[in-house]
Write a structure and sequence with these properties.
The protein is mainly alpha-helical. The chain has 13 helices and four strands.
Length: 329
């Protein structure tokens, strides 16, 4: 029965039939309690929280997360993950648990995992609470839980955690933007940029570039140029983005070439000149889309500079529309 319950719980959740999934997760909990079967109850409560969040029952989702959090306090840091795997109709077995809504917990990629250790369960709890409050547009509560998550992410320095830290700072910038605290939004987008640059995280850098350009576009549209930035500051950002564009292919090639070498070594194959050429062509193709987005961001920021210069010129000299085009040029 236990295997049957977890099979149906997973099946309904994967099909996004969350009410039915909740029924089977609860049956699984009841059955495990009745027959003293060892399960990772904190993780199952997170699954129930996810099902309720997806159906809009936020209060119940938060209640499940509180129960899960209380249980996690009793877990040892050295506890091994509790693996749950099933096989479907003779297919290879796959992980039972989905990481949940926030890929930043592990830095993205495939979200289906066999298990989570205590640290990742704690991160997932915080991430789900963050997302629930963000969905409810309670951005200060979302910020509160994200700020609890950041110190845990900083404890490790693998690629997943580095990616997660860049994402976290971008999310902080977004939440502050939605809370109309534009100075803090700029502050955390800049932090995201600094970390992405430090980690050579090209994807994180691109997301941050788009966030900054969109934020400045908002500032332009709302005539708030003097309040939130200076020409010197924006010039610095433009130079950094231009540098990112100029270096993108070289950095991408270097990182991807290293990964390709490792893949070939694992297969006991040698890297050939043709392999290098194919990789270079692939990166050049990908770069075209990246450059399109970066060029839009640069155009927005250059327009911001022109608007800033125009507003200052008008205040000082009373210049009108006749001079505006020359200033923008």
């Amino acid at each position: 029965l236990y295997t049957l319950y977890r099979y149906f719980a997973l099946l309904y959740r994967l099909n996004k039939e969350y009410d039915q999934a909740s029924v089977w997760f609860n049956k699984l909990l009841d059955h495990a309690a009745k027959y003293s079967i060892k399960i990772d109850k904190a993780r199952i409560l997170q699954e129930l929280a996810l099902c309720n969040k997806e159906t809009g029952n936020y209060n119940r989702a938060l209640a499940y997360l509180k129960q899960s959090n209380d249980l996690l306090k009793t877990y040892k840091d050295t506890d091994k993950e509790y693996n749950l795997k099933i096989s479907l109709f003779g297919l290879p077995s796959f992980g039972f648990w989905d990481l949940g809504p926030d890929a930043a917990v592990v830095g993205g990629g495939n979200k289906i995992f066999t298990a989570l250790n205590k640290r990742n369960k704690v991160l997932l709890n915080l991430s789900m609470q963050e997302e629930i409050y963000a969905d409810q547009m309670n951005f200060y509560k979302a910020i509160e839980f994200l700020n609890k998550k950041i110190p845990i992410i900083k404890e490790k320095e693998n690629k997943a955690d580095k990616d997660a830290l860049v994402t976290a700072y971008n999310n902080l910038g977004y939440y502050y933007f939605r809370a109309r605290e534009l100075k803090n939004a700029i502050k955390y987008f800049k932090k995201a940029w600094e970390k992405a640059k430090e980690f050579e995280d090209l994807s994180g850098s691109l997301k941050t570039i788009m966030n900054l350009s969109n934020l400045y576009a908002h500032i332009i549209d709302n005539n708030q140029l003097d309040l939130y930035s200076s020409q010197k500051e924006v010039n610095t950002i433009i130079k950094k983005i231009t540098k990112y564009r100029n270096e993108y292919e070289n950095i991408k090639y270097k990182k991807d070439l290293e990964n390709l070498k490792k893949e070939l070594e694992a297969k006991k194959l040698k890297l050939t000149e043709k392999d290098k050429w194919n990789l270079l062509q692939k990166i050049k193709g990908e770069a075209r889309e990246i450059y399109y987005k970066v060029d839009i961001a640069l155009a927005i920021l250059n327009f911001y500079q022109a608007e800033f210069a125009l507003s200052k010129e008008i205040k000082v000299s009373g210049a009108g529309k006749s001079n505006a085009l020359n200033i923008i040029k």
